[in-house]
Amino acid sequence: MHDVGDTSKIARGFDQLAAVYDPIVHLVFGSSIALLQEQVIRSLPPSKHTLILGGGTGAVLRQCLDRSLALEYTYAEISSSMISKTKARLKRNEHQYIHFTSAPFSGVNQTFDLVIFPFVLDCLTTAEVNSTLLQTKTHLSANGQIVLFDFNQEHGTAYKKTVWKEVFIWLLYRFFRAFTHISAHRLPSFHSIMDDAGYTKCEEHYRYNGWVQATVWKTKENA
């Protein structure tokens, strides 16, 4: 989980987690999340300009570069330590294709063919998710796509509820609220929010009986 907020307090919280983030994810989930991301990224059509919002330590960016997914990337991340970890993954000639920023929507006329949210929207409240999706929509090119990698507990999806999954998410929010000061305290209902925001789902993949999702969305007018 990485936040896209603009407060220095949150950024400092994620700075402190940068060194241990990847080992913790691998300890809990092994390679399953990385394999899911790789599967979806390899299925996407080539992009002119891809935005990765809340990219963390750069695992998703590395997968996109290995796939030659886009001609250029905007990499949005508020944590300077996360950005340093990301840059360490890059080859020397790859830096020229990537623009690092903490404000991906500052350019009025900037558009993206693909926007990837890698376990970032779970750090936001429902209102914050709605605001982010509204901004994304105004910067999404015609026929552009959104890819959402995240947890899922939503009724009406492939999610099969178990006690340990519910407890894990509860503990996760307690941890991140304490150490990174995010404002969210529960997992948003992403599918319902995306639908209400004017997006339609065109692809979906799940792991752990629907608990981890990779979903691809387009605006309803371009679906």
Fraction of residues in helix: 40-55%
Sequence of secondary-structure elements: HHEHEHEEHEHHEE
Our Rg estimate from Cα atoms comes to 16 Å
What is the total tally of β strands? 7
Class from secondary-structure proportions = alpha/beta
Largest sheet: 7 strands, mixed
Number of helices: 7
Instruction: Indicate the mean pLDDT.
Output: 94
Low-confidence segments, given as residue ranges, are 1-6
What does the model show?
With 223 residues, the protein is α/β, with parallel strands linked by helices. Helix content is 40%, strand content 24%. The chain has seven helices and seven strands, in the order H-H-E-H-E-H-E-E-H-E-H-H-E-E. It has helices spanning 8-29, 32-43, 59-67, 80-88, 126-138, 163-180, 190-196, and strands spanning 47-53, 70-76, 98-101, 112-118, 140-151, 199-207, 212-219. A seven-stranded mixed beta sheet has the order 3-2-1-4-5-7-6, with helices on both faces. The protein is globular, with a radius of gyration of 16 Å.
Write out key terms for the chains shown.
7-stranded mixed β-sheet; globular; alpha/beta; 223 residues
Summarize the structure.
The protein is of the alpha/beta class and 223 residues long. Helices cover 40% and strands 24% of the residues.
